[in-house]
């Protein structure tokens, strides 16, 4: 005769599988409220259920878009790229349709002044704008902030600074 074993209590958060914890809490079998409470101690609800920060990238250089995309996607599941735009018109269309949380915007968009887009972007969506540029002069930074940018990062800065600026713009 085959004896059926009783499933033991399992806490995916304890094993580092936070996303599995979210699904397990709904469909799984946590043996008691004490087991559930112990599981919750290992994970915060915000880290499990928070949607990723959606980022729209606006830059006319494909290599920059590719590199910044890789950087942001390395932060998954907490961040993701919502789209790419290479000019002002595309940026405005994507801002309206994708509704990103943050827009990473270059100042020089192939002859177009990216800073002129800041009020237009702020008018069509609720995204925070982080200016990401090789033009790091104080007057450019001041203009960007006066127009409503939430942050300013030089392209020569380490990637961690851009990630921190994106996080800071949402909080």
TrEMBL record:
Alphabetized SUPFAM superfamilies for the sequence: CheY-like (SSF52172)
Entry annotated with the keyword DNA-binding = yes
Residues carrying 4-aspartylphosphate:
106
Boundaries of every Response regulatory domain copy: 54-170
Q: Name one Pfam family in it.
A: Response_reg
Source organism superkingdom:
Bacteria
Annotated keywords: DNA-binding, Phosphoprotein
Mind telling me what this protein is named?
Response regulator
């Amino acid at each position: 005769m085959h004896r059926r074993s009783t499933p033991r209590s399992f806490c995916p958060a304890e094993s580092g599988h936070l996303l599995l914890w979210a699904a397990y809490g709904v469909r799984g079998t946590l043996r008691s409220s004490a087991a559930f409470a112990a599981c919750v101690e290992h994970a915060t609800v915000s880290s499990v259920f928070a949607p990723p920060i959606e980022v729209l990238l606006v830059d006319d250089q494909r290599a920059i878009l590719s590199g910044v995309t890789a950087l942001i996607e390395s932060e998954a599941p907490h961040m993701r790229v919502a789209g790419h735009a290479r000019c002002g018109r595309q940026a405005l269309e994507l801002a309206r349709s994708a509704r990103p949380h943050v827009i990473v915007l270059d100042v020089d968009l192939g002859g177009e002044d990216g800073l002129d887009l800041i009020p237009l972007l702020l008018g069509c969506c609720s995204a925070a704008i982080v200016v990401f540029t090789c033009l790091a002069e104080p007057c450019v930074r001041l203009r960007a902030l006066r127009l409503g940018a939430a942050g300013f990062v030089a392209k020569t800065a380490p990637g961690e600074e851009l990630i921190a600026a994106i996080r800071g713009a949402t909080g």
